[in-house]
Automatic annotation (TrEMBL):
UniProt cross-references to Gene3D superfamilies, sorted A to Z: Immunoglobulins, Winged helix-like DNA-binding domain superfamily/Winged helix DNA-binding domain, YVTN repeat-like/Quinoprotein amine dehydrogenase
Stored Pfam families: Y_Y_Y
HTH luxR-type domain span: 916-973
Keyword list, A-Z: Coiled coil, Membrane, Phosphoprotein, Transmembrane, Transmembrane helix
Chain segments annotated as coiled-coil in the UniProt record: 796-827
InterPro entries reported in the protein's UniProt record: Ig-like_fold, Quinoprotein_ADH-like_sf, Sig_transdc_resp-reg_C-effctor, Tscrpt_reg_LuxR_C, WD40/YVTN_repeat-like_dom_sf, WH-like_DNA-bd_sf, Y_Y_Y
Transmembrane segments: 763-781
Lineage: Bacteria, Pseudomonadati, Bacteroidota, Flavobacteriia, Flavobacteriales
GO biological process: regulation of DNA-templated transcription
Protein name according to UniProt: Periplasmic ligand-binding sensor protein
MF annotations from Gene Ontology: DNA binding; phosphorelay sensor kinase activity
Amino acid sequence: MTKFIIRFLVLLVSLISPVVISQIKKIGVPFITSYSPKMYKAASENWDVIQDSKGMMFFANHFGIMQFDGVRWSIITQPENRSMVRSLAIDKDDKMYAGAQGDFGYVIQLSNGQYRYTSLVKLLPASAGNFGDVVHTVIRDNEVIFFSHEAIFIYKNNKIKVLKSKYNFDDFFETGNEIYVSDNGKGLLQLKNDALVPFPDGQKFAGMKIRKIFKTPKGLLLFTQKEGLFLYADKQIKPFITEADYLLKQNQISTGIQFSDGYFGIGTRQSGLIVVDSEGHLIQHINKQIGLQNDYVTSFKVDREGNLWVMLKEGISLIQISSPLSRVLDSSNSETKIYCSQIYQNKLYIATDNGLFWLDWQAYKNGKRDNIHFQHIQGMSENVWNIGVFGNSLLAFEKNGIFEVSGNSARILAKIDGVWQGILVPNHPDLLLAGGYTGLYLLKNINGSWVYQHKLKGFEESSRVIETDANNAIWIAHGYKGIFKIKLNEAFDAVSDVQFYNQKNGFPSSLFLNTFKIDNQILFGTTKGVYKQNPVSKKMLPDPVFKKYLGLENHIRLLKQDSQKNIWYISGENTGKMTKKANNTFDVEELPFRKLRYLYVPGFENIQTTAGGDVFFGTQDGLIHYNAVKNKKYQTKYKAVISEVKCIIPKDSLLFSSRYDVLPNKNKSIDDKLSAVLSYENNALHFSFASLFYDEAEATKYEYWLEGFEPKWSDCSLQTEKEYTNLPENEYVFHVRSKNIYDVVSEEAVFRFEILPPWYRTIWAYILYFLLYSVVIYLIIKYQKTLAGRQRQQLIQDQEKELLRSRAELNEQKLTLEQQNMSIIRENLEATINLKNAKVASSTVNLIHLNEILLSIKELISQIDKKNEPNVNFSLLTKINKLIDHELQGDKQWNEFEEIFNQLHDNFMQRLKQSYPELTPRDMRLCAYLRMNFNTKEIAPLLGISVRGVEDTRYRIRKKLQLPSDTNITEFILNF
C-alpha cells in the first residue's frame, strides 16, 4: 500500500509540474560525452534541444534545426529566411515548432524522410512583422506561443494574436500550469486567456533580469542573471542563500532546470553547470576544467534515459546524470592508470603509474571541490602497485620498495627491487609478508612501526597475488606458470614446503590463474570459470556455486567480498555484484557496471569497497565511484531507425533521408510505412541506420535482415551501414534492430521496397515476346510449307540422281572388273616375262660358262709348240680349234636368244637396227649384252673375244651411235 501511495504521488507531481524525472550524484563527476562542432559539422552555437516520440534529438543551431540519431548528425531544415534557430517545441504528433531570427513556423516530416518548414510569419499583420530572435517556443493545449523581446505571438486555429509591450519584454517562463513574462517596465506579468495581466507586486521584479522561475513548496524560486537566487513567498522577495553564491553572482546565470530529486541545475555564462539542492547545498559544479567543452550554457534537456543534454555556446555535452557511476576528478585531474585505492583517515589514496596521490575525501564527498585536488606523495613517482592498511599504518608497495605513508609524505621501509603487495602472516598480526618481483620478504611490527627483516629463502618466484587459508598455508598465483602453495618454517626465514598446481592438476589452463579468498575459502580464477581444490583428491574442480551464476565460459579476473558479504567480480568483460539472500542463493547484478567494459588495466583489475557503501573501481581512465543507493532504469524501451537509403547506381541517388535539401520537397502525407519501387537498374542499395539510445552509443550493436534475400538475421556488430548489390527482382523488407550496452533490444525499423524486373522480363516484354513468337511460328509454318514443296522437287531430282548414280556405279563396277582382269593378265604376262628372263639369264650364264671353257681349251691348244711337240697331231688340233670357233660363234643359240630378248625388251634389236643400220651383228650382240647390264668381263666370253676386244668394239659402236664423249654408252642403251 505504501509503495502504491508513493507511486501515485510521484505521478501526481509529474502531472502538475515540469519536473524532469532524473537524478544527479553528489559524489564524483558524471560521465560526460562531448560533441564538438567538428563532429556535428554545424555552427558552434546551440540554443535549444527537444526529443520526439521516437527518441530522436533535435537542436536549435545557428545553421538551422540539427538532428542526431545516435550515430549521425545532420541539418534537416532551415527557416525560410535562412536565419539561426533559437527555440524549439514539439507536440504529441511530432510536429515541431521553431522560433528563429525574425521568423517562426512549424516543421513536419515527409514520407521520404525530408523535413519541411512552413513559416507562419505570413499570418502576421504588417505592423507586427519587425521582430528579432524568437527565444522561447511553448506548446500549451491547442495553441503555440512564440516569444521574442519585441512581441509575443499566440498561434491558434491558423491565426496569430500579437501581444506587445511599451518597454519590450525581458524573458518568458513556463512554471507548472502558469506562464510568467518579465516586462522591462512593468516587472512580472502573467499570461492568462491570451492576455497579459499584472502579477501581484509584479513591479518589485522590474530590473531583476530573471532567467528562470520554479514553483517550490516554499514559494517561487527565481534565478536572476547577476544577483543569484531569490525566493518569493508571502509577497516578499528574499535572497535564497546557497553554497554556490560566489559562483552564481560572478558568472551570470543563463538558464536552469529542476530535477526530480529536488535538485536544481543552473546554467551560467562563465562557469558551466552548477547543481544545488532545495536547501542551497552545492551538489555539483561541472565546468570546462573537468569535462564541459565550454562554460557558456544556453539550455538543458533531460532525455528519456535520464541523461542531461547541455547546450553550449560552443558544442554540446551529454552528462549521464542518471548513472550510479561517476568519475572521481578534481581540477588538476592528474591521476592516470589506477592500480589500487584506499580510504585512510578521511583521505582517499590512489596508487597510479605516476606515484601515490591523495585528496581530502570528506570535503570532496560534501561537494567542496573547487579547492580540492589530488596531491602527490613525495618520494614515489613510479608505479605504485598496491596500498593497504596494516595495523595502524598505511603501506605502499612500489617499484623501488615498501613505503610507510604518513600525511603528505612517505618513508621507505625496505629498498627492494619491486614489491607487489603485502599480507599479514596467519595468527601473527605482527608479521607482514610482502610479495616481490623475485620472492617473498618479511617485515615485523616493532613498537607500532613496521621494520624490514629479511628475504625468505627457498622461493624465488614473482608473488603478485597472495592469499592465506585457514591452515596457515600461503597461496601464490603466477599468471604465466600456475599456483604455488607454500608453508614457512618456524623461524619465518625460509619456505619449508612448496606444492605446485597447473593444468595437470585439473585447471583448464596454466595461464592467467588467480587466487582469491571468499568466506575464508581459497578459490581460483581461471580462463573457464571459478575453481576450488578437492580436499581429498587434491584435484582442481569447478566450484558449483559460481558455476551456477558465472558459468564456465569466462575468464574470472577478480573476486572480492565486501563487509556486507556481497561478492564483487570481474568475469570476462563484465563487472558484477552477487548479493546473498536469506535462502543462500544470490542475486546477480551486472547492468550498472557495463560502462566499465574495456576500462580496466589488464591484469591489475581492482575494486575497493567501504563500510559506508562506497565502491571504487581503478581503471586506466581514472578512479570511478559507484553508489548503490542511486537507481537507474536499464530496461528503457527505445527504437532503431533507418537514417538513409540510397541507390548506389546512379551514385548517391537518395530514396529516404532526413538530410537537408538532398531531395526535392514534395507535398506528401506522412507515411510510417516507407516504401519505394525501383527499376532493375537500381538494384544496388545502401542502408544507413542508427539507434535512438544515447548512453554509450558507440557501444551499441546492430543486426539486420533483408527479407526476401537473406534467410535470417545477421550477427550483432558495430556496423551502422549495409550495402546490397545485384538484387534480383522481388519485394523486399529491410529490418534492423539494435542492442545497447545493457543488452536491451530495440524496436526494429523497416524499409519496404520493390525491385522491378528488367525491361526484358516485364509484362509488356512478355506480350511482345508472345507476338514475336506468334509471328515466328507463322513464318516457320509458311517456311515449312515452302520447304516441303522444295523437298518434293528435290526428292525427284535426288531420285533421278540416284538412278544415274546407280548406273554409274554399275559401269564403275564393270570397269573395275575389267581392270581386275587386266591386272590378272598383266600379272600373268609379268610372270611369263619373269620366267623367260630367268631362262635367258640362266642360258646366258651357262653360255658364258661354256664359252669360258672353250676359250680356255683354245688357249691351251694355242700354247702347244709344234716344234717341240713332234708327236702331236696338229691336224686334229686344227679341227678342234675350228669346232670351238664355230661354237663360240653360237649362231643357233644367238637366234634363240635374240627372239626371246626382243619379246622381253620391246623389239630392242629391231628398233636399234632400224635406227642404226651400220651396226654389225657383233655390235648388235654387244648392245644386247649392255642392255642386260653385263660388264666387260662378262661380255668377252659371250663374244669369244678378249676384254680388250670388247673395249675396241664399244669404241666403234660409240662412233656409229654418234655419242658425245661425256655420254655413257651403257646408260644410252638402257634408255633406248
